[in-house]
Design goal:
single chain, alpha/beta, Rossmann fold, 5-stranded parallel sheet, two-stranded antiparallel sheet, 9 helices
Amino acid sequence: MNSARITVAAFDFDGTLTHRDSLLPFLLYAHGPANFAIKMTQASPVLLGYAVRLIRNDRAKERLLRGFLDGHPLAEIEAIGARFARDRLPAMLLDDAYARFLWHKTQGHCCVLVSASLVHYLEPWAKSVGFDHVIGSQLASDEHGFVSGRLDGGNCYGEQKANRLRAWLGAREAIIYAYGDSRGDREMLQMADYPYYRSMPREVKN
């Protein structure tokens, strides 16, 4: 086993690499404006409960996803996710953040996307631009391949981000750069050698 330390650049997605959240645009893309408006109206009690902190982040997210995706084949969600990644995600990117990702690539660093958003659209986008690995939230499906909106393994948020990144690293020693913009990134930033909160430096010394 190679004991040399690797250098890892761990990027949050929503608000860090992008100028906005990506989940609602994905649901809009998947359902169209009319159905999206109906389902958002139906979800308004859940969203309000989350806004006033009566409902936890993970529970609110699963209830929102259940309202939008319950009964849909996982293969259909993944196909829509691939099209959304191609058609919509590039326009959401922040130029300076994407430049940081490209800088890490030129340095030969291992780039990992660590997000609470769904892997079903993150993975095709990340693969297309050269990320080495994606850690994110994944929809659970039943034996027939249908989803309910429940998340397999829970919402990749907060402590889960750090735990999943550690699990992926395993026994490998790493120098970690981490980029985030919210409370959900705190634990991942705390484990980094070079944490960047809402900032994208032009240069980083090795």
